[in-house]
Amino acid sequence: MTATDRFDIPPPSGIHLRATEPRDAAGLTLLSNQASFRWGTLRKPFQSEEATRQWLTSGGENRLLLLALEGETVVASGGLHRFEGRRQHAAELGMGVASAWQRRGIGRALLAALLDSAFNWLQIRRVELHVYIDNHSAIALYERFGFEREGHLLGDGFRDGAYVDVFAMAKHIDPSVGSRPA
């Protein structure tokens, strides 16, 4: 597989993707505070608009944040956070789609845009993520894009009053890089 395989996926009709801006704090806060959206992420409940604004403006050069919008309504968000030092070749990915907008191809287009940016523009060779083991649709999406399960983390997340297991997954642009136990 080459870096450009499967990354040229346009968003569905009526949806556009773009980088976040400080003015997106209100829309991103509304999205983040939806219980159904937050269920699949590591975000805390009841995030303030000011906290979102600070988060939007604090990432620096090591972060890429994208939104999927219908008109001016934020329906999904995703981002990459590049690690530093000896891990500068790797980045952590996080994303989510509002439940009313799921299964329409928005997550697929957003993930493709993030991976295209990572592998074809930012010189990232490895993208990592954590996903709750009961988030079957997200796991299926990640696996369709070539992510592999690298670990099962017991009780790694806390959601709805209980600890939840998480899969650690990653995608390498060149899967032959690195070593694997025999």
From TrEMBL:
Span of domain N-acetyltransferase: 15-174
Domain of life: Bacteria
Protein name (Swiss-Prot/TrEMBL): N-acetyltransferase domain-containing protein
Organism: Xaviernesmea oryzae
Keywords, sorted A to Z: Acyltransferase, Transferase
Coiled-coil annotated spans: none
GO MF term list: acyltransferase activity, transferring groups other than amino-acyl groups
